[in-house]
Write a structure and sequence with these properties.
Length: 284
């Protein structure tokens, strides 16, 4: 049985959902999105996703099609109609359909689509065994803080990692790791410091990242927000990545170099447990 998806105010079987070929999301990647994880039928870190969506829309001078309460109601409705227990809700807002032009059209009506994806979230191979990454030049644009649907560069890098027999790529600019193709990158130094890149236009301001920093600090673990080099990462005691789709997932190998004993490290495992228990308490 197919899913029920959301398109511009309507809940439809997925085969019946349609958008215009003139939609700027399709023609120009003129669109932003959010991915919210769902555990036990509840939305994880939802206020953070709402806030970032509003920020992405604002940065692109795009109209806000729905208020926060309506977006939340729509997410809940999709979870309910699809009997989603564990998985994700994907939501995308485009500037709408208009005759093709590089300038923003006046008065276009934003297109809003959303759908669910059911998938195991907790007991994953990545969580159990960790993932292996390669490093690659960060070939993306300069406004990575806006969560746009321009995802070809990350797709190309993820494919290169896959062809190399690995799980993902960490992207590198001027010798420093920016982030993973679809996640924020972290290391734990040999003297126990937890490090992740500071916020700027060079990385996406991860909602999971922010929550992990808050939970770690509340548990008296210190986090340093700063750039780290590829050499520092390869020499780290541990590494991990964070994303709504992966929570905290250990990284056990970088460019063929095993970190520690090549198994998920204690800090990554502890932070994953901490994130899961704390975010469950706040799930809505
Ligand atoms: N990706 N960095 C990038 C480039 C991302 O695409 C993502 C999320 C993150 C982590 O952000 P958050 O913790 O808010 O999920 C960092 C989503 C999950 C995706 O594109 O599927």
């Amino acid at each position: 049985m197919g899913r029920i998806v959301y398109v511009n105010g309507e809940y439809l079987p997925e085969e019946e959902a349609k958008v215009s070929i003139f939609d700027r999301g399709f023609l120009m990647a003129d669109a932003v999105y959010e991915v919210t994880s769902v555990l036990d039928g509840k939305l994880i870190d939802f206020p953070g996703h709402l806030k970032r969506l509003a920020r992405s829309l604002g940065e692109l001078e795009m109209a806000r099609p729905l208020d926060d309460a309506a977006i939340e109601a729509m997410h809940r409705e999709l979870v309910a109609r699809n009997a989603l227990v564990d998985g994700m809700v994907y939501m995308q807002v485009t500037r709408g359909a208009a005759d093709r032009d590089f300038t923003y059209p006046e008065g276009a009506t934003p297109t809003v689509v959303a759908f669910t994806q059911a998938k195991p979230m907790e007991d994953t191979v990545g969580a159990r065994d960790g993932i292996k990454v390669i490093t690659m030049p960060d070939i993306r644009w300069g406004r990575r803080d806006i969560k746009t649907v321009q995802l070809l560069a990350p797709s190309m890098c993820k494919m290169a990692a896959k062809k190399a027999g690995k799980d993902d790529a960490w992207l590198v600019e001027d010798g420093f790791v920016t982030e993973g193709t679809s996640n924020n990158a972290w290391i734990v130094t040999k003297d126990g410091r937890i490090v992740t890149r500071d916020l700027s236009t060079r990385i996406l301001h991860g909602i999971t990242r922010a929550a992990v920093i808050a939970y770690a600090e509340a548990a008296q673990m210190k986090v340093e927000e700063r750039a780290f080099t590829v050499e520092e990462a390869r020499d780290a005691a541990e590494a991990f990545m964070t994303a709504a789709s992966a929570f905290v997932t250990p990284v056990v190998e970088i460019d063929g170099v095993a970190l520690g004993d090549g198994r998920p490290g204690p800090v990554a495992r502890r932070l994953r447990e901490l994130y899961l228990s704390e975010s469950r308490k706040r799930a809505i």
